[in-house]
User: What shape does this take?
Amino acid sequence: MKGLRQHPLRVAGRLLWFGGEVLLSLFDFIIRCVFCPKNSRRRRRTLWLQRICRRVGRIFRLKIQSAGMIPAGGLLICNHLSYLDILVLASLMPAVFVAKREVKSWPAMGWLAQLGGTVFIDRQRRTHVGEVNHEIEAALNDGALVIVFPEGTSSDGETILPFKSSLLQPATQSQHPLNIGFLQYALADGEAGAEACYWGNAAFLPHLLNLLSKQSVHTDVQFAPVKDRSPGRKGLAQQLHSQVLGLKNSRPKII
Assistant: This one.
Protein backbone atom coordinates (compact mmCIF):
# COMPACT_ATOMS: atom_id res chain seq x y z
CA MET A 1 0.00 0.00 0.00
CA LYS A 2 3.07 2.25 -0.13
CA GLY A 3 2.05 3.55 -3.56
CA LEU A 4 -1.39 4.54 -2.28
CA ARG A 5 0.16 6.58 0.54
CA GLN A 6 2.58 8.28 -1.84
CA HIS A 7 0.06 9.06 -4.63
CA PRO A 8 -3.45 9.10 -3.12
CA LEU A 9 -4.87 11.54 -5.68
CA ARG A 10 -3.53 9.51 -8.61
CA VAL A 11 -5.05 6.32 -7.22
CA ALA A 12 -8.40 7.99 -6.41
CA GLY A 13 -8.62 9.53 -9.87
CA ARG A 14 -7.83 6.28 -11.62
CA LEU A 15 -10.33 4.38 -9.47
CA LEU A 16 -13.07 6.82 -10.50
CA TRP A 17 -11.96 6.46 -14.12
CA PHE A 18 -12.03 2.67 -13.72
CA GLY A 19 -15.57 2.79 -12.30
CA GLY A 20 -16.72 4.92 -15.19
CA GLU A 21 -15.24 2.52 -17.72
CA VAL A 22 -16.98 -0.41 -16.04
CA LEU A 23 -20.35 1.35 -16.29
CA LEU A 24 -19.76 2.27 -19.92
CA SER A 25 -18.72 -1.30 -20.69
CA LEU A 26 -22.03 -2.59 -19.34
CA PHE A 27 -24.05 -0.37 -21.69
CA ASP A 28 -21.76 -1.29 -24.57
CA PHE A 29 -22.24 -5.00 -23.80
CA ILE A 30 -26.03 -4.65 -23.78
CA ILE A 31 -26.02 -2.83 -27.11
CA ARG A 32 -23.55 -5.06 -28.94
CA CYS A 33 -23.85 -8.51 -27.39
CA VAL A 34 -27.14 -9.18 -25.60
CA PHE A 35 -29.42 -9.18 -28.63
CA CYS A 36 -26.99 -10.33 -31.31
CA PRO A 37 -27.58 -13.61 -33.21
CA LYS A 38 -26.43 -16.67 -31.28
CA ASN A 39 -24.00 -17.77 -33.99
CA SER A 40 -22.10 -14.48 -33.71
CA ARG A 41 -22.27 -14.06 -29.92
CA ARG A 42 -18.84 -15.48 -29.14
CA ARG A 43 -17.16 -13.25 -31.69
CA ARG A 44 -19.07 -10.19 -30.47
CA ARG A 45 -18.05 -10.87 -26.88
CA THR A 46 -14.36 -11.21 -27.74
CA LEU A 47 -14.47 -7.94 -29.70
CA TRP A 48 -16.27 -6.29 -26.78
CA LEU A 49 -13.57 -7.55 -24.39
CA GLN A 50 -10.86 -6.20 -26.68
CA ARG A 51 -12.41 -2.71 -26.70
CA ILE A 52 -12.80 -2.69 -22.92
CA CYS A 53 -9.29 -3.98 -22.27
CA ARG A 54 -7.81 -1.27 -24.49
CA ARG A 55 -9.75 1.37 -22.56
CA VAL A 56 -8.88 -0.05 -19.14
CA GLY A 57 -5.25 -0.39 -20.23
CA ARG A 58 -5.08 3.40 -20.56
CA ILE A 59 -5.94 3.72 -16.87
CA PHE A 60 -2.80 1.75 -15.98
CA ARG A 61 -0.81 3.66 -18.62
CA LEU A 62 -0.17 0.27 -20.18
CA LYS A 63 2.49 0.44 -22.88
CA ILE A 64 2.67 -2.69 -25.03
CA GLN A 65 5.31 -3.74 -27.53
CA SER A 66 5.08 -7.04 -29.36
CA ALA A 67 7.26 -9.14 -31.63
CA GLY A 68 6.34 -12.00 -33.93
CA MET A 69 3.11 -12.53 -35.82
CA ILE A 70 0.08 -11.99 -33.61
CA PRO A 71 -2.12 -15.12 -33.87
CA ALA A 72 -5.67 -14.74 -35.15
CA GLY A 73 -7.03 -18.21 -34.38
CA GLY A 74 -6.24 -21.58 -32.86
CA LEU A 75 -4.56 -22.04 -29.48
CA LEU A 76 -2.12 -19.65 -27.85
CA ILE A 77 -0.08 -21.07 -24.97
CA CYS A 78 1.44 -18.38 -22.77
CA ASN A 79 3.19 -17.86 -19.45
CA HIS A 80 1.13 -16.27 -16.69
CA LEU A 81 2.16 -13.37 -14.46
CA SER A 82 -0.82 -11.24 -13.52
CA TYR A 83 -4.41 -10.21 -14.10
CA LEU A 84 -2.80 -7.68 -16.43
CA ASP A 85 -2.10 -10.57 -18.84
CA ILE A 86 -5.73 -10.51 -19.99
CA LEU A 87 -5.64 -6.74 -20.55
CA VAL A 88 -2.44 -7.04 -22.57
CA LEU A 89 -3.33 -10.02 -24.73
CA ALA A 90 -6.96 -9.04 -25.33
CA SER A 91 -5.80 -5.56 -26.36
CA LEU A 92 -3.69 -7.14 -29.10
CA MET A 93 -6.31 -9.57 -30.46
CA PRO A 94 -9.87 -10.77 -29.79
CA ALA A 95 -9.65 -14.02 -27.82
CA VAL A 96 -11.39 -16.48 -25.52
CA PHE A 97 -9.45 -16.96 -22.28
CA VAL A 98 -9.31 -20.02 -20.05
CA ALA A 99 -8.93 -19.04 -16.39
CA LYS A 100 -9.22 -20.56 -12.94
CA ARG A 101 -12.60 -20.28 -11.24
CA GLU A 102 -11.24 -17.87 -8.59
CA VAL A 103 -10.94 -15.11 -11.20
CA LYS A 104 -14.73 -14.75 -11.09
CA SER A 105 -14.49 -13.31 -7.58
CA TRP A 106 -12.02 -10.55 -8.47
CA PRO A 107 -13.65 -7.09 -8.21
CA ALA A 108 -14.48 -5.68 -11.66
CA MET A 109 -11.82 -7.76 -13.45
CA GLY A 110 -13.71 -10.99 -12.81
CA TRP A 111 -16.95 -9.45 -13.99
CA LEU A 112 -15.36 -8.23 -17.23
CA ALA A 113 -13.83 -11.67 -17.78
CA GLN A 114 -17.22 -13.36 -17.40
CA LEU A 115 -18.96 -11.02 -19.85
CA GLY A 116 -16.07 -11.44 -22.27
CA GLY A 117 -16.78 -15.16 -22.58
CA THR A 118 -13.92 -16.52 -20.47
CA VAL A 119 -14.03 -20.27 -19.87
CA PHE A 120 -13.53 -20.94 -16.16
CA ILE A 121 -12.09 -24.17 -14.81
CA ASP A 122 -12.70 -25.58 -11.35
CA ARG A 123 -9.48 -27.44 -10.61
CA GLN A 124 -11.05 -29.03 -7.52
CA ARG A 125 -13.36 -31.04 -9.79
CA ARG A 126 -11.48 -33.63 -11.82
CA THR A 127 -14.40 -34.16 -14.18
CA HIS A 128 -14.56 -30.46 -15.00
CA VAL A 129 -11.41 -30.65 -17.14
CA GLY A 130 -13.27 -32.69 -19.75
CA GLU A 131 -16.10 -30.14 -19.89
CA VAL A 132 -13.63 -27.29 -20.31
CA ASN A 133 -11.80 -29.11 -23.10
CA HIS A 134 -15.13 -29.49 -24.93
CA GLU A 135 -15.71 -25.74 -24.57
CA ILE A 136 -12.23 -25.02 -25.88
CA GLU A 137 -12.83 -27.27 -28.88
CA ALA A 138 -16.17 -25.57 -29.57
CA ALA A 139 -14.52 -22.14 -29.50
CA LEU A 140 -11.75 -23.34 -31.82
CA ASN A 141 -14.33 -24.72 -34.26
CA ASP A 142 -16.02 -21.30 -34.23
CA GLY A 143 -12.75 -19.81 -35.45
CA ALA A 144 -11.84 -18.15 -32.14
CA LEU A 145 -8.39 -17.70 -30.71
CA VAL A 146 -8.24 -19.50 -27.35
CA ILE A 147 -5.58 -18.48 -24.82
CA VAL A 148 -4.46 -21.01 -22.20
CA PHE A 149 -2.07 -20.42 -19.29
CA PRO A 150 -0.91 -24.00 -18.61
CA GLU A 151 1.19 -23.10 -15.56
CA GLY A 152 -2.12 -23.15 -13.73
CA THR A 153 -1.14 -20.15 -11.60
CA SER A 154 0.87 -16.95 -11.89
CA SER A 155 4.47 -16.30 -10.89
CA ASP A 156 6.92 -13.41 -10.42
CA GLY A 157 8.40 -14.02 -13.86
CA GLU A 158 11.82 -15.20 -12.69
CA THR A 159 11.05 -18.66 -14.01
CA ILE A 160 8.31 -20.45 -15.94
CA LEU A 161 6.50 -23.05 -13.88
CA PRO A 162 5.96 -26.56 -15.30
CA PHE A 163 3.03 -26.77 -17.71
CA LYS A 164 0.01 -28.83 -16.74
CA SER A 165 -1.13 -31.07 -19.58
CA SER A 166 -4.85 -31.34 -18.74
CA LEU A 167 -6.01 -28.48 -20.97
CA LEU A 168 -3.80 -29.36 -23.92
CA GLN A 169 -5.97 -32.22 -25.17
CA PRO A 170 -7.59 -30.07 -27.92
CA ALA A 171 -4.12 -29.26 -29.24
CA THR A 172 -3.34 -32.94 -29.72
CA GLN A 173 -6.64 -33.81 -31.40
CA SER A 174 -7.11 -31.01 -33.91
CA GLN A 175 -5.28 -29.29 -36.72
CA HIS A 176 -6.02 -25.82 -35.43
CA PRO A 177 -2.98 -23.49 -35.40
CA LEU A 178 -0.83 -23.64 -32.28
CA ASN A 179 1.25 -20.69 -31.09
CA ILE A 180 3.27 -19.83 -28.01
CA GLY A 181 3.69 -16.50 -26.27
CA PHE A 182 5.97 -15.02 -23.65
CA LEU A 183 5.25 -11.80 -21.79
CA GLN A 184 7.13 -9.74 -19.25
CA TYR A 185 6.57 -6.47 -17.36
CA ALA A 186 8.64 -3.52 -16.20
CA LEU A 187 7.86 -0.52 -14.00
CA ALA A 188 9.77 2.77 -14.13
CA ASP A 189 8.99 3.40 -10.46
CA GLY A 190 8.77 -0.03 -8.90
CA GLU A 191 9.65 -3.73 -8.96
CA ALA A 192 7.70 -5.62 -11.61
CA GLY A 193 8.05 -9.02 -9.93
CA ALA A 194 6.38 -7.76 -6.75
CA GLU A 195 4.12 -4.98 -8.01
CA ALA A 196 3.01 -5.84 -11.57
CA CYS A 197 3.03 -9.62 -11.23
CA TYR A 198 0.20 -10.96 -9.08
CA TRP A 199 1.25 -14.18 -7.42
CA GLY A 200 1.74 -16.07 -4.19
CA ASN A 201 -0.29 -14.82 -1.25
CA ALA A 202 -0.87 -11.33 -2.62
CA ALA A 203 -4.34 -9.91 -1.88
CA PHE A 204 -6.09 -8.61 -4.99
CA LEU A 205 -7.39 -5.21 -3.83
CA PRO A 206 -4.18 -3.94 -2.14
CA HIS A 207 -2.18 -5.14 -5.16
CA LEU A 208 -4.53 -3.32 -7.55
CA LEU A 209 -4.47 -0.07 -5.57
CA ASN A 210 -0.68 -0.12 -5.45
CA LEU A 211 -0.45 -0.81 -9.20
CA LEU A 212 -2.78 2.12 -9.92
CA SER A 213 -0.25 4.39 -8.19
CA LYS A 214 2.47 3.60 -10.74
CA GLN A 215 3.44 6.01 -13.51
CA SER A 216 3.06 3.37 -16.21
CA VAL A 217 3.37 -0.35 -16.89
CA HIS A 218 5.59 -1.52 -19.75
CA THR A 219 4.91 -4.89 -21.36
CA ASP A 220 6.82 -6.90 -23.91
CA VAL A 221 5.13 -9.82 -25.70
CA GLN A 222 6.79 -12.31 -28.04
CA PHE A 223 4.83 -14.71 -30.26
CA ALA A 224 6.00 -17.72 -32.25
CA PRO A 225 4.22 -20.51 -34.17
CA VAL A 226 4.57 -24.17 -33.21
CA LYS A 227 5.18 -26.10 -36.41
CA ASP A 228 5.58 -29.65 -35.12
CA ARG A 229 3.86 -30.87 -31.98
CA SER A 230 4.25 -33.93 -29.78
CA PRO A 231 1.27 -36.30 -30.14
CA GLY A 232 0.52 -36.84 -26.43
CA ARG A 233 -0.58 -34.30 -23.83
CA LYS A 234 2.37 -34.78 -21.49
CA GLY A 235 4.94 -34.73 -24.25
CA LEU A 236 3.30 -31.64 -25.72
CA ALA A 237 3.29 -29.91 -22.32
CA GLN A 238 7.04 -30.48 -21.99
CA GLN A 239 7.66 -29.36 -25.56
CA LEU A 240 5.67 -26.13 -25.18
CA HIS A 241 7.26 -25.34 -21.82
CA SER A 242 10.71 -25.72 -23.39
CA GLN A 243 9.76 -23.48 -26.32
CA VAL A 244 8.24 -20.72 -24.13
CA LEU A 245 11.35 -20.90 -21.93
CA GLY A 246 13.37 -20.49 -25.12
CA LEU A 247 11.49 -17.28 -25.90
CA LYS A 248 12.21 -16.05 -22.38
CA ASN A 249 15.92 -16.75 -22.68
CA SER A 250 16.19 -15.17 -26.14
CA ARG A 251 14.20 -12.03 -25.28
CA PRO A 252 16.10 -9.21 -23.53
CA LYS A 253 14.65 -8.22 -20.18
CA ILE A 254 12.83 -4.91 -20.42
CA ILE A 255 13.85 -2.15 -18.01
